[in-house]
Amino acid sequence: MHFETLAIHDGQAPDPQTGSVTVPIFQTSTFEREDLDHRREFFYSRVANPTRSALESTLALLENGKHGLAFASGVAAMNAAMQVLKPGDHIVAGCDIYGGTIRICEQLMRPWGVETTYAASESTEDYLACIRPETRMIWLETPSNPLLQISDIRALSAIARERNILVAVDNTFSSPYFQRPLDLGAHIVVHSTTKYIGGHSDVIGGAVVTSDDNLHHRIRNYQAAGGAVPAPWDCWLLLRGLKTLKVRMEEHQKNAMHLALALESHPAVERVFYPGLPSHPQHELAGLQMSGYGGMLTIALKGGLPAARKLIAGTKLFILADSLGGVESLIASPAKMTLGALTEEQRRRRGCTDGMVRLSIGLENAEDLQEDLFNALATI
Ligand SMILES: *Cc1c(COP(=O)(O)O)cnc(C)c1O
User: I need a labelling partner for 160 at 20 to 30 A (CA). Which of 20, 71, 231, 332 fits?
Assistant: First the structure.
């Protein structure tokens, strides 16, 4: 079956007891046991809950994986995935990744004895150069944040498998609709379901998907023991989001492509970062591992931070906010917001300049969005 059919039907058959077409919200902490010697499949909602189980099996299926696990946030999912490592192990991660992932590596993993080295996100050679004898995980986020660089999942997974290294991919920007890292050889996929999977800016959540039984059992154990599980209501919102993921992603991409092309020829714009543009340095690789280019784009303005401030202040439809992947278009300054904790030198080394503006392209009409951006650009 195709993606959109699975998203609507799999793991979500009508409720056997009532016929309810949507999966009920099992808002209960505990379940009656049969007797002292027998417990049912569900007995306590931190360990397992039917609404969460429906979400977990749907997520696994859409990533073409065997097992899915849902978490209370994206960072909770990412932290859980890294717990398969042990003190002394080493991670090689792309450097252009979500700031919260770097926080996990530096503030949680490093004091615990797991070091991370950061490679240039777009360079397979650089990832390989960073590998040490104790490297046990390569962490990829592709397309990257905020530069939309592409890491070669297939090439790195092949090399990593020869060396007994796990490959984990943060697939938040593409969603499983445009990219399925397990099919490309990765061991683990992680998501902030807060973004495209939820899709409506109304829920915080995360997920881990793998086809490896052993990895699944260890991460599942951490999920139950660590306890960062999502509420049944949040799982229901995510199940609802998943049903329209295909149509939303297609529209996000259509709007983003329209705007990327329009912005590329605007005189105030120095550069547009969007993997769908032929001018993107890894456009060809993106086409090989993704079935679409997504709804995120970043622009660098010729006028630096003052120009970025004017653009951000001048837009009426684009909302100044930190998240992404929702129906409404958002605008953000990586230098002042997501990467604001870094020094200017650290940001420059990552290739992030003060004149960059990140856009999460929503589902409004593309002409309206272009007019809004061009009106604001005219004030620079
Ligand atoms: C938002 C985000 C995260 C963190 O997810 P939360 O749901 O905010 O905890 C991780 N990776 C990427 C790429 C993100 O955009």
Answer: 71
- In terms of domains, do 130 and 263 share one? no
Whether 192 lines ligand 1, by a CB cut-off of 6 Å, is yes
Please tell me the distance between residue 70's alpha carbon and the centre of ligand 1 in angstroms.
14
Same domain, 141 and 250: no
48 and 134, same domain (yes or no) = yes
**312 and 201 share one domain:** no
The structure's pTM equals: 0.97
Consecutive H or E run containing 188: strand 188-192
Domain that holds residue 90: 3-243
Q: 78, 145, 192: which to mutate for ligand 1, most atoms within 8 A of CB?
A: 192
- 164 with 131, same domain? yes
Residues 57 and 190 in one domain: yes
Q: Are residues 99 and 48 in the same domain?
A: yes
98 catalytic per annotation: yes
The DSSP symbol for 49 reads -
**Statement to judge: residues 367 and 298 lie in one domain:** yes
pLDDT tens by residue, 322-369: 999 999 999 999 999 988 878 888 888 889 999 999 999 999 999 999
Beginning with the edge strand found earlier in the chain, give each strand of the sheet holding 206-210 in spatial order.
67-71, 206-210, 188-192, 166-170, 135-141, 90-94, 115-119
Distance CA 287, CA 43 (A): 45
Summarize pLDDT for 85-115 with one digit per residue, the tens: 999 999 999 999 999 999 999 999 999 999 9
Nearest to 207 by CA among 73, 8, 324: 73
Nearest CA to ligand 1 atom 8: 74
- Which residue is catalytic, options 52, 136, 195, 310? 195
State whether the beta carbon of 198 lies less than 6 angstroms from ligand 1: no
Identify the active-site residue in 152, 170, 354, 372.
Answer: 170
Task: State which ligand 1 atom lies nearest to the alpha carbon of 194.
Answer: 7
Residue 206 tokens, joined: 């995360």
